[in-house]
Specification:
By secondary structure, the protein is of the alpha/beta class. 17% of the residues lie in helices and 29% in strands. The chain folds into two domains: 62 residues, 2,3-Dihydroxybiphenyl 1,2-Dioxygenase, domain 1; 57 residues, Roll (2,3-Dihydroxybiphenyl 1,2-Dioxygenase, domain 1), CATH 3.10.180.10. The strands form two sheets. A four-stranded mixed beta sheet has the order 1-4-3-2. The chain has a four-stranded mixed beta sheet with strand order 5-8-7-6, with helices on one face.
Amino acid sequence: MVSSPETLQPALMPGMLRKVHHIALHVRDMVASRHFYGQILGLRELQGAEVPETLKALFEAGEAANFVTPDGTVIDLFSKPNLLPPDPDPAKEFTRAGHLAFDIDPTLFDQALEVLKHHDVPIDHGPVTRPTGRGIYFYDPDGFLVEIRCDPLP
């Protein structure tokens, strides 16, 4: 059924968008990025029949990788080996995206900090404690800002 212009809503109604389907990131070093998202952050990499049909050729060529978060959000990595930020200092923003944040159980927050330190992940700032919880901000291999945050302990 096609709607006439008179029946179109001026905006999507609350609840029409159900969830984030995926997040696509361009990465310079696919090996380093796969290691970071899979081994350091512990996200499960999609394999075989799980890889979307539209990405199979890129996946097989080593130019794409797909990770899934525990809530089902997919993070797509696309190889762009010549991609460089306008400034080599990752603290100087080079994208309109602010950061990617992952939630963690408050009792596991300190363990996450130790994992980041163990792998010499570059920390931007934190941990910070706020009324809304704790957070640590750090960089992925391409200088994209990532956060691990938790709610306050009950």
